[in-house]
Sequence to fold (164 residues):
Amino acid sequence: MRLVVADTSPINYLILIGEIGLLRQLYSRVAIPQEVFRELSSENAPPVVVSWIQNPPDWLDVRSAPSELVLTEAAFTAELGAGEVGAIRLALMEQDSLLLIDELRGREAARNFGLSFVGILGILLDAYKAGFIDLREAFEKLKKTNFRVSQTLLDKVLESARRN
Fold:
């Protein structure tokens, strides 16, 4: 079974739009590093997110990322947060892993390490293709959060979904 590792952002926004169950539907099990657990339960996280992570579902595995795996500065185009570094370290543990990550600098680092990755828009698109959600409705909910995405990109994803 493919290891699916999530950074903070996809979990945070899926909770905020009421679609966190999509992770179980799409991937069966998802792992997060301790650093992501801490970010999701911090006082800066939305209360609904803190409440969710305090009683995580059985499909979510909280794991320790291998600290002996040193990620060199040369591999990154910019500094990464603790959650991103932990998620990348955890994803690097298995060759055929999938990293759920949104931040551009984290995606660039994942690409530098040869990791497969997808962000929340890709997760929602996959859920739409599987018949789990109405993509336009999910995007409308996402726009009501503080997630930053251009309408142009949302329109491109919607157009892509219509063609497939």
